[in-house]
Amino acid sequence: MSHPHAAGGGVAVSGVGLVTPAGVGAEETWRRVCSGLPTAAEDPTLAGAPITVSCRVHGFDPRRHVGGTRPSRNDRFTQFAVAAAREAIRDAALDPRTWDGARVAVVLASAAGGVATYEEQHRKLLTTGHHTVSPLTLPSFLPNMAAGQLAIELGAHGPALHTATACASGASAIITAAGLLERGACDIVVAGGSDAMVTPLCVTGFAQAGALSRRSDDPAGASRPFDAERDGFVLAEGAGVLVLERAVDAAARRVAARALLVGHGSSTDAHHAAAPRPDGRWLRDAIQQALAGAGAAPADVDHVNAHGTGTRLNDRTEAAVLRDLFPAGPSVTSAKGVTGHTMGAAGAIEAALTVLTVQRGIVPPTANFHRPDADTADVDVVDDVARHQRVELALSNSCGFGGHNAVLAFAPGPRAGDGPARPKPSPDGP
Fold this sequence. Notes:
By secondary structure, the chain is α/β, with parallel strands linked by helices. It contains 13 helices and 15 strands.
């Protein structure tokens, strides 16, 4: 196998930042995901809703993780995005005080924007009158505001864009960012996704659509990607942000890439507003686009970080595509068994986890996967414990309402000795 970008070209992932139910920070998230310990729990804020289980981000303090004089002016989805971006920028050894802001772009994604702000202010409008509605309502809930606020903080004067392809949004943002780099529109892109949709309205809407797990009596066992007893996803919140730059530029800064983005693909089912096309025709097409960009064949794929929501239809369709395209059986995992479904952030969070898998040679397990059924059999789903595996090419799949499909292909960055080494993971964890 030959990756055409591995010899100095292509797009480098030089920094990673995460805020998830598994932890605030990339290392804390990675350890929890590798442990396979679910984060779903009873959520008191959802009392009275048809489903009261969620995956919340705990330990997040806007004053500490975002800072500034009034971080609460921003919706929670923006706070998550800023915190994850700061971590990713530090990880990439970049300093916004010294970079050329005209050459820095921001591409962030969200499926819903500041929906909690919207719900809160709408309640005020209906119950206490228009005079109680905050003048910051629109700057807080507009979906583009995470990108806008981050650009303000970073002094980034390149394109600041928002992508919205439902649950594929975070991956779509990374694809958009790669395109900006490939055509020379910027030199650095801060890209990813953030969502905070664990609200009564969103939970009720998903529950009414039959998309959520109804295991309220067993929250930890509710999210069951690919398992025979799966019955829906668990709604979650969080953010994932990557710093992307041309590999030659990262090398010139003497920063070793965590991984290389060597291919990507996107397509649309054009089939149904919420259900995937049953034969997976266009998810397969997006995967083939990503492989073509990587100069690789299906047999070259070692690992797939699946969309893996734990719904009957998604897992059946995705498993069928994986079986058909990859008869050699790459390892497959879904982080949603631990994190729940973070919506527009999922594609970026899972891209970051795929990057860490490629870099560290560790595939996290799929929590709550105990046995397949006829729909998910013959797929090598990693269960029980993390698997140590050399990964030369990995895919991260994302799919969204509206029929959106986005696939990212990652390969290792420079091997040890090719550039400055990063700190090794703790010997006490993956």
